[in-house]
Structures are given as C-alpha cells and as structure tokens.
Design goal:
Six copies of one chain form a homohexamer.
Chain A (H helix, E strand, L loop, with lengths): L1 E3 L14 H12 L4 H13 L5 H28 L7 H8 L12 H4 L26 H25 L3 H27 L24 E4 L25 E4 L24
Parallel strand pairs in A: 2-3
Helix pairs in contact in A: 1-3, 1-6, 2-3, 2-6, 3-7, 6-7
Amino acid sequence: MFYQDGKLQYRVRVERPNPIFARALQQAIGGVEGEIRVMMQYLFQGWGARGPKKYRDMLINTGTEEIGHIEMLATAVALNLEGAPLSMQEDVANDGVAGAVLGGMNLRHILSTGLGATPENCNGVPFNASHVYASGNLMADMYANVTAEATGRVLATRLYGMTDDPGMKDMLSFLIARDTMHQQQWLAVIEELGGSAGLPIPNSFPQSGEKNEFSYAYLGHHKDGTTIPSGRWTQGPSYDGKGQFEPMISEPLGGEPELARPRPDSGAQSEQM
Amino acid sequence: MFYQDGKLQYRVRVERPNPIFARALQQAIGGVEGEIRVMMQYLFQGWGARGPKKYRDMLINTGTEEIGHIEMLATAVALNLEGAPLSMQEDVANDGVAGAVLGGMNLRHILSTGLGATPENCNGVPFNASHVYASGNLMADMYANVTAEATGRVLATRLYGMTDDPGMKDMLSFLIARDTMHQQQWLAVIEELGGSAGLPIPNSFPQSGEKNEFSYAYLGHHKDGTTIPSGRWTQGPSYDGKGQFEPMISEPLGGEPELARPRPDSGAQSEQM
Amino acid sequence: MFYQDGKLQYRVRVERPNPIFARALQQAIGGVEGEIRVMMQYLFQGWGARGPKKYRDMLINTGTEEIGHIEMLATAVALNLEGAPLSMQEDVANDGVAGAVLGGMNLRHILSTGLGATPENCNGVPFNASHVYASGNLMADMYANVTAEATGRVLATRLYGMTDDPGMKDMLSFLIARDTMHQQQWLAVIEELGGSAGLPIPNSFPQSGEKNEFSYAYLGHHKDGTTIPSGRWTQGPSYDGKGQFEPMISEPLGGEPELARPRPDSGAQSEQM
Amino acid sequence: MFYQDGKLQYRVRVERPNPIFARALQQAIGGVEGEIRVMMQYLFQGWGARGPKKYRDMLINTGTEEIGHIEMLATAVALNLEGAPLSMQEDVANDGVAGAVLGGMNLRHILSTGLGATPENCNGVPFNASHVYASGNLMADMYANVTAEATGRVLATRLYGMTDDPGMKDMLSFLIARDTMHQQQWLAVIEELGGSAGLPIPNSFPQSGEKNEFSYAYLGHHKDGTTIPSGRWTQGPSYDGKGQFEPMISEPLGGEPELARPRPDSGAQSEQM
Amino acid sequence: MFYQDGKLQYRVRVERPNPIFARALQQAIGGVEGEIRVMMQYLFQGWGARGPKKYRDMLINTGTEEIGHIEMLATAVALNLEGAPLSMQEDVANDGVAGAVLGGMNLRHILSTGLGATPENCNGVPFNASHVYASGNLMADMYANVTAEATGRVLATRLYGMTDDPGMKDMLSFLIARDTMHQQQWLAVIEELGGSAGLPIPNSFPQSGEKNEFSYAYLGHHKDGTTIPSGRWTQGPSYDGKGQFEPMISEPLGGEPELARPRPDSGAQSEQM
Amino acid sequence: MFYQDGKLQYRVRVERPNPIFARALQQAIGGVEGEIRVMMQYLFQGWGARGPKKYRDMLINTGTEEIGHIEMLATAVALNLEGAPLSMQEDVANDGVAGAVLGGMNLRHILSTGLGATPENCNGVPFNASHVYASGNLMADMYANVTAEATGRVLATRLYGMTDDPGMKDMLSFLIARDTMHQQQWLAVIEELGGSAGLPIPNSFPQSGEKNEFSYAYLGHHKDGTTIPSGRWTQGPSYDGKGQFEPMISEPLGGEPELARPRPDSGAQSEQM
C-alpha cells in the first residue's frame, strides 16, 4: 500500500522556460530509458517476487522512489512550458521566425494537456509496457535493472548537457546521483546472489540439458569463413568457471528445411499445391 | 552486407506437432526476450558503433547469427503446425472436445499465415522495436545484451520444460547453449572495458556534476520512516570504489510544486483561472 | 513524493487457483478499464494541475490509492497461478484434455514471468499510455474519471460473476466498493465546478466563436433524409440553459473539395498530373 | 449500411496554407480526442447495442456524422499542405532559415502521402483502437462519450486559438458547435436512463455484493496519516441517494502477501528456491 | 458526407453461436487483412486524392461499402456470442471441461463489451493505423488495395472453411464475392493508368536518376557466391519494356563504414573515445 | 543461416551532414515503406514457404539483400548526425535561431543513441511488425511485395528530391534502382504463377462458394441512389475471364439486426434489460 505527502523529493526550478527542452525531458518520463519504465519494472518485480523476502521490500521501496522521480520530471515539463506560444502569432512575436518554437514542440503539450506533461517519450510516443522485465528470475531482473539505470543515467547526463538552465542542471544532478546509486544497488544484489557463480542464468537449469560444445564457442559468421578477430570472448576461461572460450567458424548443422506442401483447404494458391 | 545459404544453423525436427507449442515458441521469435529483438539490437548497436572497431564486427557478427535463430524457430513453428485443425469440425474429430486445440492456438497461424510463423509473441502481439537498445554507450549496451540473453535463456529453458518432443528438446538445447555463450560474451566486453572501473555508466560524465551525497545512499521510502532493512546495498564500499553505501531515510527536499494558473486562452475551465 | 509499507490495502486470498481467471484478472491491471490506467491518469492530472490546489491533492491522493489496487491484483494473479501447469504433460495429467488449461492461459505467465502478473490486459496486450487523459481542463478530466470508474466497476462486477472463489469474490467486493466511491467522488468535483453551469466544456471559450445554429441541433444522417426518431436530445431545453434541442436533417454545406493537382516532384504517378 | 455524396458537411477553406498547422490538425483526426476515435466508438457502441433500439439508431447516426468530420479535417490538412516545401532548398528559399518549416512538419506529409492527411495524431503516432469504449453498459458509454466530446471541444478551441486563418477559424467554429451539441446529446441519454438513479454504474449489480463500509468513504493516503482536506466528497449525501460521504484514513487491511517459493522447474535462480 | 439506413448490406444469421468463432471473426474486423483497414485506406486515399476526380469518387464510394462490412461482421460477432459462458461454472456446465470455451475466447468479449465486437484482431490486438497506405501515388495505392483484397479474400475463405454454420457460410459467401470484385476493381484502375507502362512506380521520376546497371539485375546473396537459381526474374525483358533481367553476384561496392569517434560530451563510455 | 562481411553493399557518403535529413531517412529504415519491413516480410515469407522451393530461395535471398539496405541507411543517418548540436547553446551558435535544428531533430538521435540510427520511422514511431504480410498464399504475398517496393521507391525518390547532398543522392540512386528491380521481380513471380489466371486470389477456393451475382458488380453507395460514374470497372470483361463488370446500385439485403437483450448478469444497465 502506498502513501504521499504532496511534496517533491528534490527541488525543481526553471529559470528560463524552454518548450523544446520540455519535449526533451519527456524522454526521461516515458522513454525506454525513463522513469515510468523503472517504476513499473521494480514494482512488478516486487509484486511477483518469489523466494527471499528482502528483495520484495527493496524492489517495492525503490519503485516507490521512482514514482517521485516521474513527479519531479512532470513538474519540470510543466515549468518549462510556462509562457510557451499557444498560437502561430505568438510564436512569430517571440522569435521572429514562424515555427521556430512551435514547430519544435510536442504539440500535445498545447493541444492535449494545456501545458503539462504526458506519459510519452520525446517524440510523443506513448509509454507502452511491452519492455517491462519481471522475469521471475532475480538475477536476470537485476541485469535488466542495471541496464535501465545505465541507460537512464546516460540519458540524464545528455539532458544535463543540453540545457544551461541552472535549475534544470540542479534537478538533473540529483537524478544522476540516484542513477549512480541504483546501478550500484542492483549490482549489490548480483553479488549477494553469488555473482558469476550464478551464471549462466538461470542457474537452476542443469547444463547437461544444453549442447555443451557450443556453450563457450564464439561463432564466426564472416562470409569468407576464416576471419574471426580475437577478443576476451575467444580465449581464456569463461566467467562461470565452467568452460574455455574458443573461436569456431559457424557451419550449418541443419540442412534445408522441409515443410509440407500446403493443404488444399488452407488458402494457398493452387500453383503451390 | 549479408549472405545466406538456405540451410539451418542447427537441425529442427518435430516428432509430434503441437499447435499450442507453436504458439509458445512465438515468444522466442517476437517476444521481448526473443530473437528478433536481439538481432535488431546487436545490428543497430554495430551499425551505430563509434570508437574501437572490434566491437562493431563482433556485434554485427553475432547479430547475423541471431537471424539464423529466428529462421530455426520459424521453421519449428511451421512444423508444429503441420496437421493442425483448420476447422471446428476437425478440432472435435481430433480431440473430442470442441475448442481444445483451436481455442488454444494463435488463430492467425490459420487465418493469416496458412500454418506459418508470425513476427509476434506468444499472445499474438506484434514485435515492436521500442525496446531495442543501442545507446551509443558500449557499457550500457553490454548490460542490455546480458539482460537479453539472460531472459532469453530463462525463456528457452521454460520452453524446454514445456515440451516432451525430442526434436524440440534437441533444438532448444542448442539455443540454450548459445545463450550461455552470449551471456559470457557480453560480460567479456564489460571486462575489456574495465569492469567496475567503468562505473558509473557513463563514466565520461564528471561526477562533480552530480549531488554526491545521494550517490551511494539507499533511500528508504517506508511509511513509518524508520525501517530500512539492510543488505549489501546499505553498507560497505561501492563497486566503483568511489563511495560507501549507507541507508538514508528519504525526506522531501523540495516543497509543494507551484504551477502558474492556466492562461485564459489555454482551454481550461473558467473555475480554474 | 511517495511511501509504502509493504502491506496490502485489502486482503487477497485464493482458495482454488485458476490460471484462466489469472488471465481474466489482467484486464483489471492493464486493460483500458484497469488500474494502471487510473493510476497514471489521476497522477498526471494531479502533477499538471493548474488552478485551485485542492484538486491536486485529491488527484494525487486517489492516484496513490490506485497503485495499491494494482498491487492487490498482481498478488491475486500470482496466487491464481500457484500450481499452474508448466508443461503439456502436467496439463494432461491435471485435466485429462491436452490444452484445456494451458491453451487458455496467458502463456507469458509461464514463459516470461514464472507465474507472476504482467502489465498487460487479458489478451496479453501491453498497457499503453495513449489513452491517459490529463487535458488541463478539470471538468473534462472529471468526466474521463467517471468513465474510468464506471467501466472499471462494470469490469469488476463481471469478474465477480465469473468466479466462485470466495477469496476472489471478497477482494472484488472491496474493489467494487471503491469504484462506487470514486464514481461519486468525481461527480462531486463536477458539482463543485458548477455542474451544468460548466457546460459546454471548456466554458472559457466564448460561444460567440461557434456556429450557434448547429450548437443544439441533432443532425439526422439517415439516407432517406426524413426520419429523425425523437428523444430528449431532439426537444426541450439544453442542459447548459443556453439553447433548445431541435432535430435537423443534415445537408452538405460544403461542396466537393478541390485539391490542387500533384506537383511534378511530389512522387505521384504521371497520369495524375 | 452506409452512403455518401462526395460533398463536405461544412465548407473547408484555407487562405494561407501552413504545414505546421497541418500537423496540429492531425490531433483532431487521429488523436485520443479526435474524430476517428469518436467515429469508431459510436459505431461500435451502436453495432453492439443490446436493449432499447432507439439508442442503436442514434449512435450509428452520430457515428456517421463523425466520418464526415474526419473528411473535413483530412481536406483541411491537404489544403494546409499546398505549397509546402518538399526539399531543404525550398525550405530555405521560403523562410530564410533551414528547417524552420520542414523541421516542424510531420515529414510523413511529404514522404508518405505526398501532401495529404494520415490517420495519426499531431506527433505522427498512428491511431490505435485500444481506447475505443463500447462497454455493453449504456450509461458507462455515455460518460465515455461526454468525455470524448469534452476533450474534443477543448482540442478544437485550442486549434481555433492557434490559427488566424479565417477559413480555418470558420471550419472550427462549426466543429466546436457540433461538439457542444454532442456533449448535450449524451447527457440527454444519461437523463433518459434515470440520471443519478442509474448510479452506481452498473446499477444491475446488487450493492449487497460490495463492501459497503468503503462505498462512500474518501480514503486519505497522506503519509502523516491525519490530513484529509475536505471537499464535497468528504461530506453530505452521495449522488445515488444511498450513502453519506465521509473521510477515512486509509489503513492496510491486508497483511504482507505470501507467494509460494518458485518451483524448481520454473526458471528462477537457485538462490530463490 | 455520409448517410446510413440502419440496415445490413447482407443478411447475417447464426444458427449455432460459437464464441471461439466470434474470436476468429475479429480478424476480419480489426486484423491487417480486415475491414477497418480497407475502410480507412480507401477513405484516406479518396480524401487525399489529387489528380483525376473519378478516382476520388470511386475510392470514397467503396470505402463507404466497407463500413457496412464492418457492421455485418460486428453483428456476426455479437450473434456468435449469444449464450456464451460468463463464468467458470457455466463453462463447465456447458462442456464438461473447465476452460474448454472460456479459455478459447477473447475474454474482452465478456469483460469489456458484454458480448459484442471490438475493433481488434483475433488475438485481441487493437487495430492500429500504421499500415494504412495512402501514398499520393495512385498506382502504388492500387497495388496496396489489391493486396488488401487478396489477403482479405484469403482470410474470408479460411473463415468459411473453419465454420459449418450455414448462416455464417452464407454471409461469408457474400463477402468473398465482394473481395473478388474489389480485386478486379483495383486492377482495372491499374489498366486505366497504363498498366505496365506505369512502371516503375512512381513513373514521374526520371530513370536517369537511378543507377541503371542495377535496375534489372537479380542480385545473388548466396554465401558460396556462385549459385543463382534461374527464374523469370533472371532472364527476358522487364515488364516496363526498358531493360533485360540478368543475374548478378552481389559484391560489396562500399567499403567498411567510418563513423567519427564519439564526442566527449555525448554520453559514450570513456573507453570509446 | 546467414553471413556478413562488414562492408556496405554500396558506398555511403555525406558531404554536408544534416540532422533533419537524418530524421527523414528514418522513414526508409523503420517506416511502413521502409527496409525493416521488407526484410521481415521477405524472410518470413521464405521461412514459411510451402510448395515450390524456388520461391523460398528467392525470398530469403532478397530478404538478405534488404538487411544490407538497412545497414546503408543506418550508416547514412549516423553520418548525417556528425556535428549535430547537442545543446541549446550549440544550436543557437550554429544557426542563430534557437530550435532551428534541434527542434526539427528526432531528439532520440541525441538522447537515446548518441548520434546513431533507431529502428523507427521519421516521426520516431518504433517499427512494429503488425503489417508484415506472409499469408501462405504466394500470389497475395507477391502483390504485397510489389506494394512494398512501389511505396518504397516513391519514398526513396521523395528523399532524393529533398536533399542536394551529392553523396546522399548517389546512395539513393542505388536504392531506387534496386526498388525498380524488386518491383519487376515480384511481378515476374506473378507471371510465373499464371498472372490473371491466378485470380481471384486465392484461386484454390471454388467460386461456387461465393455469391456470384456480386462477384463482378461495382456497387454504388451514392446517397441519391442513381449516380454511378463509369470506369473500366463498370463494364467489359473481368481480368480473370470469368465475368463481366457491371454497375449496381447498392441496396440493403439484410434487415435491421436483432441482438438479444442483455443478460441480467452481464454488466449492462438495468434500463437496457
């Protein structure tokens, strides 16, 4: 169950509202690297958590923090939209060039919300939950979470570089710090779960069930069939301590597939039968 | 540029076709843990690769392998659909219960493809590219790739458990082995890039730009304001060697947000102005 | 900013787990009538609220309640999946008919989550935020909210009728009660905003700007051009007290549209130019 | 069955074509507040109408009117695109600033349609039918329809404010008037269905089936657990005449959820079992 | 502008309602081969038609017919849902096997519509307008329309084979006939536009602008670099009368791409710079 | 199985990088007329091909070529982004007008990829596979493929016209030539399959199963019930040689539909029952 206090986790100030930066900020709300995604991901992971209870608490707790990050960003979007042009005439009056600002805005910020944020990315594509990972495998989920916080921090630093508004830089410096911590946090769970001893993921599947000769082979699909550039992944021990990397030229092990002819009543063309 | 030879990377046999398993296999084609996603992800990462060239080659090379995995799975779907019921009458004739098989199928396997695979997941939701990561940051991308192969291997082992067809188990044992290797492969790149020395991601952003007092703090959002269960993430050194984890009760650092009243011409209700 | 206590707003018990009912419950999580939608809608309305502050608090407060509803339903899905068949063999063993249960499940409940909920509807379609209303007009938003709670309560009563599990009926009886209240709550805001005096929405647009002869006319588009069945909407005063309903046969007031020929360099076929 | 006459319901003139306004108009075609949505919604409600026949006719009739609104708007988009720049060179020639117009356009207006409308919103996001309500409950549907016409009219008035083209203002003044009427029309059906006597929706579900102590309680989820600001929704009789509003501090009535440990063969990590 | 008469274009009878067939029929409503798609496609082509006016009329006219086809199919879905099980108990009572019917249904037919159609395909995926073609090139559009009617007729014949309900077969025999005609109709426009003289599409682009040595070459991407199986497309004159087909082994004409190193402030990892 | 050589099929040069043209190029990558779509379409058609084997090879072979086209375009996007403004300050410095370039960019090119391509269209809408045709009917698929190459070539010529960069024009002249060939190629298959003798599609369905009186009738849905403009489709022999075109005024052949009243427990409003 959840509670709120109507305040912001960190201050949100905008000195010079910029409607195009408002559009950019949307990526941190509804983009694949954004806060709605992590909020959903951590909460669904927590709600479905089976096994040790401590992870449920941690996931829901940090998921709860993320709701507040969406709140901060939604506020930042609204503040960046104060004074935005609502008409072609205002646009020209402000910038002298028709379309200079209006053309670069998410027009839904005017048309659909009256100068507020939307649950969309910077291109106005609505958030969709297809990429929320809650796999039931805690180790896999932790890598998904590191990914989310790594790409999230990359995004936040790019937004930081895009603006010179001191208020926005201040807000982003907080969000960047939180991303730093959250990367660490999920790595800490990986350590608790045994680190490389937990590989391959899932470690509950007996490796006797896999074709072991291909488990540590780097397959080359180069057309000439000879070039396999070397790297850490072509030599040395594997990280799970169970194999040795080796390069291998990929050869087709299966022949040409054979599908039955189409059945007469299956909608194919007669010439196919 | 790309080439093909019309053969399968590994043999695909189905002894007892099962149209419901055909539906399940679709998750490995078009699901978020599936092969279209990794193919796209590795290729786009490779095509956009800036910096050391060796990674471009590796990414495109493994992306090329993944196209062949989709091919294997699409073949497996088609073979599992051989002899599937095309009508209510056939369905009853086969199983004695109307809807037993037909009701559990992806009906597009009959209606849209004439017993072939689709670029969709197990629920018939079309693949969408919103969750393809190619961030321009190689380290972040590697974590995304480990995630993809970890969840992909979880999926493949679940499919392995779901069927008792020897041909399908054989095919999956190969794909599981490849997922094992690909998890290792991306971890090897992480090692080459410095491992934990590469943290926080992106490591090119000067940490002086973040609010350091929150960079290694685990924030508790528990309602009672006192309980913060401990874990590796509340104590000890951080993995980047730059801080110490600590628990911290989360307090609102920003007050209540203040948005301007709606402008008269912005479409709000008069009572709001 | 948000907080949590790890407990459920109301008890969630399942006496006889039913994986098909787990699928049905997903509609109340990720469907257009579901809880993710209202959570997002109330929070984004609150975060973007301009004008009287009391509504911001109420919207965020009730949005916060809704997060807990998702939590309850996600728990209910997980509990309905306890003991679900993970393989074709288990499926036959349990029910005697292959596919009886497995065929009716959201297979992602096995393949993607390991027996947990997803942010999807009952057909496995991921939640997408395209239908979240936060219009910047409080009155319009309140109608959207009544709609959400009306269709949400219709859904909840249908789920109530679908199951005979006492635990599930108990949980739903709570959610249905909350939907009752929330319908009332948004109607109360409509009353506070002036009720019918707030019509037409938005009431801040001067009606002199609209073609008044069509503002209270029910237009008949019947082919024969004469039949306009009567109803409250063809006679009597309008609800905003500003007009009288009247029936009117719809006639085209604009002629045939005239578009310019395609430009030579615009990609049209030569025959069109 | 449907008919057409090739004419426009109302005249569509554009004096000064503006490709950025063409993009804005798309929101009224394919946006969540747009005409494709209402057309689909009214028609599907009509086609699925069970019960009194008069509503079927009205819904299909007004749905038919809406097709003509899409036609008007598609024409308006095409007319606003007459003379739009097709190349970077033309763009500079027209405005002196590269990208001033082209950068603000929906580029599909050039690349995909050759200067015609698309079934998309103002950000180029294709219409999707996930938010079409046809619930089988007439009262719920009427609230959905008021919502559609309220947000639709808000949108139309914002478009009206955005342009100073007399032709476009004239067209919009007609569409705004129709939205006024349609808001009224659906409210008239609500009155015919008993108004507040129809609450809670659906009124066919016996309220004995709900947990009545929560049916008229406004639950406070404030962190401090004491503050519940008052409003019409915390006091006075409910609108269905069946209860009294009251404020209530929300307490968790369910404990911590208990999910079973993961099954050995379910793809979880060994450390979870 | 559009009109209606409340009647069906052709009779719709269902003798033995079948909720799983109701799900199948949805593909003909909201699937990629379905009627919403053609309705949208023909209408948007008509509304954006530039050039000879006769095609605008024909496109809008046939688009109008298609609205009536959606209506027929929506009616067929509703009739197939009469008497469908609304609960697990009813389901067992009817078929003796829990989930036999309910498990195979689109559960939204119960939960979201109260036994009516939705604007979705047979898997419950909402129609999305991303695949509506209105290219501004009439010839290209005609091929898109033949495609739509060809796949539409394939679908309709598969539905015809799936059912043995005489009413449904009767309805489908009408729709199949219309698809026959509509295939012909668009081919007739292709003839009017010059048939193969209209190739390549668009024929308004001067072929001097293309690399002619590759305009009629069938490129072989076979790994061994020698095998190019022959077909009509490797020999003989091209259909536009402007070239001769020839086989050609594909060789990379561009070298390895060279992208600049990442800029310091672009969010890449330091090791990439 | 697939192979690669790390080189480009054709050279990709950009003399004057243009971030807005980078956005435009995305349509050729992830748009409905783009290369991801044809790659997927040809490969899935090939992988599901039943019947004569030669078509499987050809489809997979050309699908393989298309992967290389995506590669070329992704490279072109990255090269057009070299030197793009990463901040508001850079934007003003470059163009003198804030937002002139940045406002017209796909901001994900900065924020999500660090100056690389995405699998999206020109509006930033992610590719979705809903419109990939692999129908199991070869003739229908060939028309889908002609459509793809026709609209693809229209798109490519529009991009050619939009830019004056010699490198980009050179690259496009190659892609346009390939589209020319691919249009021809699929038409060649249609000829091999019998051309018009293959109509109506599917030709394996006995035409005795369709309502023949409507198979070659052009139905007029004009409101006045008399006007049917003539064209090739209203007179003369049909292309399959089996009928004569004729005009026919469309009359409703079915009456008003009759749906049962809603069931008491189906969630409808009491007034509907």
